[in-house]
Structure formats: C-alpha cells, structure tokens
Amino acid sequence: MAEPLISLLLEQLTMVLSRKVQKEVNLVVGVKKQVNKLKSNLIDIQSVLEDAERKQVKDKAVRVWLNKLKDVCYDMDDVLDEWSTAILTWEMDEENTRSLKKMRCSFMRSPCFCLNQGVRRRDIALKIKAVTEKLDEIAKEKVMYGFELYEAADHELPRLTSTSHVDDSSVWGRDDEKKSVVSMLLAENSQEARNVDVISLVGLGGIGKTTLAQLAFKDAEVTAHFEKKIWVCVSEPFDEVRIAKLILNQLEVSTSNLDDLQSLLPKVSQSINGIRVLLVLDDVWTEDDRQWEQLKLSLTGCARGSKILVTTRNGAVAVTMGTDHLIDIGPLSDDVCRSIFNHVAFKKRSKDERERLTDIGNQIADKCKGLPLAAKVLGGLMQSKRTREEWEAVLSSELWRLDEVDQDQVEKKLFLPLLLSYYDLPSVVTGSRDMEVDGEHYFQVLAARSFFLDIKKYGREDTRFKMHDIVHDFAQYMEENECLTVDDNNLGEATIETSIERVRHLSMMLSRESSFPSSIHRSKGLRSLFIGNTSGSWLGDALPDVMKQFTCIRSLNLSESSIKEIPKEIGKLIHLRHLNLEGCRQLESLPEIMCDLCNLQSLDVSRCTFLNELPRAIVKLIKLRHLCIYDSCVAFIPKGIERLTCLRTLDWFLVCGGGENESKAANIRELRNLNHIGGSLVIRNLQGGIKDAEGANLKNKHLLCLELHFCVNHEDFILIEVLQPTSHLERLSINGYGGTILPNWMMALTRLQELQLRYCQNVEVLPPLGRLPNLESLVLFRVGVRRLDGGFVGIEEVENANINEGEIARVTAFPKLKTLQIWGLHEVEEWDGIERRVGEEDSTTTSILIMPQLCDLSIKECPLLRAIPDYVLAAPLQKLHVEGCPNLRERYMGEDWHKISHIPSIYFPRGQTPLETLCFVMTRSGPRRVLRLAQDFSHPTRLSRVSFNVKCFLCLTSLFWYPTPIGARRGEPSSGCEETSRQTNIQFVLEDAERKQVKDKAIRGWLDKLKDVCYDMDDVLDEWSTAILTWEMGVRCRDITLKIKAVSEKLDEISKEKGMYGFELYKVADHDLSRLTSTSLVDESSVCGQDDEKKIIISMLLDESSQEARDRDVISLVGLGGIGKTTLAQLAFNDAKVTAHFEKKMWVCVSEPFDGVRIAKVILEQLEVSTSNLDDLQSLLPKFSQFINGIKVLVVLDDVWTEDHRHWEQLKPSLAGCARGSRILVTTRKGAVAAMMGTDHQIDIETLSDDACWSIFNHVAFHKRSKDERERLTDIRNKIANKCKGLPLVAKVLGGLM
C-alpha cells in the first residue's frame, strides 16, 4: 500500500519545515518552492489513492503507475530523512559547541567544516528537486486512469466477542452433507471381510471439513450407534505415538508408563476389541502409507460397523488412508453464505440497522463464492461499518473481479475477502506519539480482523500467535516484489522471478556462499536486511561492501552470526533505526563511528560474550529507545547515559565499584530521569553509595522484572531499602544480599508472580511470603535460614489470633503457588508442619489451606532436612525432585513411600556411576588427569563398566594430549590439537555431506579429497604413536613435525571448501534417515510368497527336541533390508499355534542404538509391570527375571544392529530363568550379529519369486481400481513387477507409486 508512505512523507515534510533552524532548512535558493510543490502533489495523489489501489488488481497499467509512485515515495523518504538527519546533526553540533564555551575558539568553525556543510546542503537540494520532478510526472499521469476521489472512513473498531468452543447454532448449510456423512457412519460396512470402513472428507482449506466432521460426531444417532467415539487432530507431522496415546486417553486407559508403539498399539487393540467405535482423524497431511499402516492394524479388532472419518485437503492422502467412501466438500450456496455473513456482521445491531442494511449485506455475501471462511471474514469486516454509504462502498468494490485474473489458482479465491480487509486497514493510527503503543494498536487492529489467531500471552512481554495458512499465503502474494526470502535452495529461482531492484525487505539464510550474492546488489533501495545461519567467515568479509551498497537500510539484523567486528562503513547507514547483534559471540568491539548514527532507535548486543565495552560516545544516540546488553561481557555503562531520555528498554546496569573504569562508567543515579524504562532490568555489583542508589528512583520506572545482584554479600540493609521498585513488579530476584533482613517493601508487591532469593546466606528469617496473593513461583537458593515455619507460610499471626467460640477463620497461604524450588539450605533441619489445622474445621479453630495449586516441588542439597510437611505432599503435585537429601531419600523411598507414591513423576537419583564420573572429569580436567583416569578405568575389574565409545575417546585423548616426550619440540602437541579442532569442525557437517554426495558430484569429489587426507593423517599419527612407544621421538621429531604440518595445510583447505556446499550442522547422533518402529501387528492379506519360511520358523518355535541343555533357544532371521524378515517374524508371532504354545509373548523393535534400558522397559510394559520409577538396568533386570521366571516365553528382538556382545550379555542372564521351550527370535541384516547373539538356528531369508512380487505389486497398485482398469494395465504391471527382483519392499513401494 502506498497510502502509509504518503502519509508518512507529509508528516515528515511538516515536521522538517517547522524546525527552527532556518539557515539549515532553507538550504539553497528555490528549495522552499520545490517543497511546497512536492507537498501539493502528494496531497493531490493521496485523494485518489484508494481508488487506484483497487483498480490496480485488474489493470496492469495502474499497477505499474502505483509501483512507480511507491519507488518515488521511498526515494523521497530517503531524501527527507537525510535532510532531517542533517538538521539533527547541526543541532547536536551547536549543543556541543555551547558545552565547550570555555574554550576561546570554540565558536569559530573551520572553513572546511563550513564548505562540507554547504556541499551537503546543495546535494540534498538537488535530490529534492529530482524527486519533485519525478513526482510531478506521476501526478500528471494519474489523469489518464480516471481515478475518483475516495474519502477514508473512521476505523475505530468495536471489541469483538470470541469463545473457545464451536457454537452449533452458528453453522449453516451443511445439512445435506451432514446427512450423507451420518448415513455412511450408520451404514453397514462396504466389505464383508472387514470391520472398519474409512470415510474421507476432502476439500479446500477453510471450506468447512472440520465443522462437518464435528456436526456428524455430535449427532444424537451417531452417539447412540457407537459404543465409543474418539476425536484426534492429527495435523503435521503424523506422530503415531501421540495419536495412539490420544486414542487411549479418550478410552480412559492410562498411558503414563507407555512410550512406544509396541506397548501402545496392543493396548489400543485390546481396548476396542469387539466394540463398535468411531474414530475421527482430523487434518491429515501425510502421504506415507507406512505411518498409517501400523496404526490401522491396531483397529482391525473392533466390531463390525466401526468407522474412521478422515478430513484432509489432499486427495492423495485419502488414497493413502485406504478410503472406502470419499466426499468432496463443495462450496456453500449463496443463501447459506448470507446466513453466516449476517450472523457475524449484524451481531449486536439493532432491528432498525438490520432492516436498513440487510439488502446490501445479502449482495455483499453473494460475493463470497460459497466459502464459509470468506463469509466469516467479510462479516467481521462489516462489523465496523456503521453507515449505509460505507456498506455501499464495499459492495461496489471492483476487487471481486480478481478471480478473472488468476482463475487457475483456486486457493487465491480465498484472497478476495482478505483483499477487502487488507485495503480497509487504517493506513495510519493516530493518537499516541509513543511508537510502541502505536505498534500495539496496529496489532490489535489486525487481530480484530482475524488476521491473527490463537493469541496467547506468556507474561507481559511475550505474546505468541498463529496466522492461518491462507492468510500467510495471501500476505506473500501481496508483497512478493517488496519482500523476499532467500536461502540455499531458492537463491537462483528467487532472484530471477523477483524484480530485485524493487525489493525493500530481504531475509537471507545462506550457509554455502563464500561471498555476498552479487544478484542482490541491485536492491539499492533495501530497507531491512536479515542475514541468518552464517557460520562461515564470508559475512565478515562481505559486510563493508554491503554497507556501502545498501545505504538506505533502516533495520539490520546480524544476530547469531560469526562476525568479529563491525566495519567502519557502518557510518554510511545514516538512516539506520534498528541494529540487532544478539548472540554474535565472536564480536569483540563496536566502532565509535557507530555513535554518529543519530537516528538509531534500538541496539541489541545481548549474548555477545566477547564484547567488553560499549562505545563511550553512545550517549550521542539521543533517539535510542531500546538498549539490550543482557548476558554480554560489557564491563560498565558509559557515563552520560542519563542523556538518553527516550530509553524504553535498558535491561542491564553494572554499578562500577572503582578501578580503571570508574572515570568512564555511569553512576547508578543516572537512571533517575530515565522514567520510561520498562520491561526487565538487571542491576549488578550493588555496594555502598546509598544516596546514589536512592537517586536511581526505581519506584517511578515501569519495570515488570527486576534482578538485584549485590557485591560479595554486601550487608547494607539501607541500600536494598532505597532500591524499592514499583508495586506493579511481577518478577523479582535478589542475589548475593548479605543483610539479615529482607526489605520491607517486598510484601507490598501484591502483583509479584515470581520470586528468587539466591545466595542470601545471612538471611535467617523469611518474611510471610505465603501472603503474596499472586506468587506462582518461589526459588530459595543458598539462603541462610535454619527453619521453615509458620512465619514463612504467613499463618503465624492467624495462629496467635484470638478466635471467638464458634468462629472459623479461613486462611489460604500461597494461594497461587505452582512451583517451589528449595536448593542448598544446608542448615535447615525442620520444615514445620501445620497438619492439625490444614483443611480441618471445628468450633474454635482455623481452616488453613496451604499451596492448593502446587504442582512442582524440587529440593536439592538440603542434607539435614528430615521431612516434608504433609500439607505439601497433600497438594496436587505432579513432579517431585529430591537430590542430595539423604534423610529424605531414606524416609520417602522407605517407610513413607505411601505419602508420595501418588505423585506421577518422582525423581530420587542415586550416586554417580564410574562412567558418569569419568565423563564429568573429562569435561572439566586437563589431559594428564584424563590419562591417569584412563589407566585407572582400564583395570580389568573396571573395564566392563566403561562403554566402548569412551575407550575409543580415551585412545584419541592419549594420542593427541600425550605428555611431551623427551626430545619433542615445544608446541608440537598443539598441532595435534589443531587437527582435532579441524576434524571436529568437519565432523559436524559430515553427516549432511555423506547424504548430499549421492546427488552432487562436486560434494563427492570433496569427500574423496577428505578421505585421502584422512588416510595420510592416519599414517602420520600412527608413525607418531610408534615413535612415542619406541622412544625414538628425538630422532624422528622433525620429520613427523613436517608431515603433520603438510597434512594440517591440506585439511585446512578442505575445511575452507566445505563452506561452498551449504552443509548443515549435524551432531554425531543425528540421522535424517528416519527408522520406522515396527510392531507385532501385520496385515496377513498383503503378504505373499513366504509360506514355506513361515512354516519353518513356526516349527522351530514349537520344537521341544533341542532343549536338553538349555531352557531357551535363539533363532535368527538374516537377510537384506526390505527382504521381509520383520514380516515373517510378525506372521510367526501372530500364529495361533505359537500364541497357544507360549504363556507370554513380547515384541521389541531394537533398532540402533541398542538401548538396554529401553528394551527392558518395553518388555516389562508388555508384561504389565510398572516401570515409572525404574531408570537403570540394575533395577529393571531383576524385575524382568522375576516376572518370566518359570514360564514359557517368546521374545522377538526385531532389527538388531549391534555387534558388541557386552550389550547383549547384560540382558541375556535375565532370560535364564524362563521355562524350557522359551525362544528368542532375532531379525538382523548381519550374520555377525546373529553369531554375537549366540544363535542356535539361523535362517537366511531369500528373495521372493517373480509371481509373489507380482501379487504384492497388484495388491497395492490396484487397490480399489475397477475391473476395466485392471485389464487395461495388466501387460504393463507385469513388466513393472518384474523389476522388483524378488524384494517385497520394492514391490510394495512401486505399487504405492503407481
């Protein structure tokens, strides 16, 4: 929209001309005339701009005219901003001159200065003249298009009423569809062989699929017909575990100890077995049939007549779900759209208004084209229209003809009502001169028109919301030439399809570029630039040129980048308002020239951990409104900060306690006049200076969060008293306070929600914190109290009060407390209980309710504390974490377990294992300490307790960190450390490179070079290691050093080259190849050609002849991935004879890594044994042994990869007690795994015959196809099926593809 630009320009012209700096404003002769002409043309154009905005949708010539107008407006804004900046600079120079009046020559300006000012004035004047001429041409052209005057209406919006539930009375027009869906739900199944039918509702986003499903779900006949109804919003991604849990929760089955499909799906099958159910899966997106297949199998046991109702936008999804009945949801009738429109538009209007506007409203509703979302949005738009003229203006709008322009893009039909809402937005919000308040107003205007949804507030400073996907697409569509997002995948495409010269807002997420993309340099008028995901050094090299090229930038975001300095060229960005350097952890300094950016309004250097100092001249930035420094290493706030009276945010202040920075640092009293400061403020190093602290005047600030950090337990009670904040404070943290009494003002903070007391080690008595009415979170960390009593809870006075006979005093302490953390209270032995009165009432007592909402309690390092009061344990606790409290552990894990057993999540950790100790020391100790530990842990009696990976790490550690041997040159081991650094640098992206090399030959070449260097490196390191062992370092030292240097240089080159390929960071454990979790469920109708193998496996499972020496045999199925091992195991597992033969059957999908704890938990869950308090093998395996002792079991370990026998040996003994005839059935791709598992019978799974592959392919490819289609495609299908070469997975995938 050009309207906001023109309004802004007119405001700027008025502001600049009103400044009393005549000599500077006049510039040169004739400029005043040019400015008046400029203003006249702008007003002239503004009067017809609304009409032009609407006509440009169907008239390309008008669109071109508007684009030219926008370009000139942007140019004009730059010139006026430059002019305004010149005036501001002149004013600041005058002020500085007056401040130096003691110097004799301070009033004398140098000829050079005057000459520069004259040149600058003339330059601005010429730019104004050029812009005026362009605008004059544009103003003349407007006559060609027949624009009409358009007066903007008043846009004060009434407050909209919203609810969180669906109102059935507000739904119209889906009666026929509802009857159709209901009849399908009540009908018998379409196939006799199946108990469950799938019905899919398919249609455009916003067409009403979910609403229709809700209507059918709530129908009385449907409710009576089904024994159970379940609703699941699936969305994206398709999470089988979450879906299964939601189903079980609605079936009132506990899932607290179930976290994997193998445990969940049998529960689902069991819970719905033999009953008629309706399952609604709303908003399904996935086209991957493998994700749906396992869940679908768990639903096969329900009674005939059960139904699955699916809603989706994608017809392909409906096919994937195996749909029996597909219903395409079409548009509503015009009458129905009128009903929806009228319901929203005429809400709370009088009868007279309805009668006066109904005829126009019906005509407007007819333009919704049957889309309920459009009717709702348009109705919301008309709520703010009070006059008939406003309604007629909407009715006569030509924007409704947009569908004639892009008829091929169906989704864009939803943009029609959004366009009206978009153009109806107020271009300028008038009222407050505070831009933050205006910004909030803009947000509310957008939210009132439903551009934002699900708006939630987290505290006062964090607002989160969603944007409907259609609205998001619409916003991108409207601003495609001005807003551009570029990443590694679309760089070329985006720069070709977009008019780069017209881009004003650019977001770049590039990783592989070694230089700034040259195509972007044409965006000379860029206003905002965000550069993210820059881990390489190219950005630092490119910044000087970027700042030279894009001098019009207002907002520059370089957050989280790896830049080390800001180039001096930043001084050219005279228009810059916002500079975001958050998280630039390598940034070391800010240039002083940055302080000449007098228009800067926000500067964020938070989390810049190498930044030690702000520029001293930062106090020149008199327009600065937000200065964020938190979590940086800035040592002091520069003196003169009091001049920045526009500041709204100052999140950190360090009190300078002397030293070299004292002369440069601001005193805390400089906060006195910064009364606009709000949000959060952290004050550190508080000590002495009571008058200075009192002068800070925190009471008059608009703070919501305050952190006070005292210097070395400073004991001045008066100091904390004079730091009294506003009573509106919501969060308070006091750290390192050395006084014995907390401030009196604390109990006056009636809005306080969070309180933290840390390292207040002299505080012996706590105030009655239980009386803070809104306190939700309390942290007591290293506080010196010796007792937690009734005074802390806030009931002591009530206890001592005189209560008359028959009266009951009702008291609630900590009424809203949800989280309580008590850490490091080393002296506390007693936490007094008040059990006799908690919740009790009699004729002469007090009813006391304490912590009625407490759900999270954490107690750590309180070694003397003997008990937790019963009133705390009686609270609705969901989590209890106790650590470093031996008395509590002994008590509550023993005799008082019954008092905490009801809490869902309980954590009482044991002592550290040797491996945990080793890892702890490795991360905190030097190399020699690691080597000593390595030798210690390598002792035969200890080695079994150290994992293989740790041993490998120790070997590498001993190689690279080995103490320097005699004869070695100083500094040589550091070369090895540098190699480790480079290897680590490459290692993080190696996973991505390995995957990308399949499609990219250049990456393959890079990996080949890397392999060659790795081989060379291995040779050199092996030679080095050999020299150390044979003590020949003195002889071969120089030769090895040269080789290390050569390898280092090669590796350095390869490391630099990796930036070219756009690799993403990967942790070693990350794998983008998803592993599907198998379960024991199988659809036998889809299995072909494996009958013989199935019979062999079953016979081995039932055979009793080989059991003379042992109670159980191991049978391994070995074969290629996708050959059908898991399917065979599933068939055998579900065989009736096998089920009757074994007393217990357990299925575990092992996969990678081999997690013994998880495997044991999954087995115990299938044995219906709780594992909620068991987190280690030492606790799990005895349980396992106990519950299978003496019974015949079948354990299937599917998809085993590990060849490390130690993993298996930990589990194996726990199976020894089962009855004779028990079996372990293993599936694996590797024969070595089968050998490691101690296999008694190995079955090598071979490929299928061509006929079997053909059957599988047909079953999938021709699912629900007509007989004619089958016959027509028979010859082709046979040829395709023959390509499968006996692999069932290939046959299935190809069938799904077809």
Automatic annotation (TrEMBL):
GO biological process, one term: response to other organism
Keyword ATP-binding listed: yes
A molecular-function term among this protein's GO annotations: ATP binding
Highest taxon above the source species: Eukaryota
Domain AAA+ ATPase: 195-333, 1111-1249
Keyword Chaperone included in the entry's annotation: no
One Pfam family cited in the UniProt record for this chain: WHD_DRP
UniProt keyword terms in alphabetical order: ATP-binding, Nucleotide-binding, Plant defense, Repeat
Name of this chain's protein: AAA+ ATPase domain-containing protein
UniProt organism field: Salix dunnii
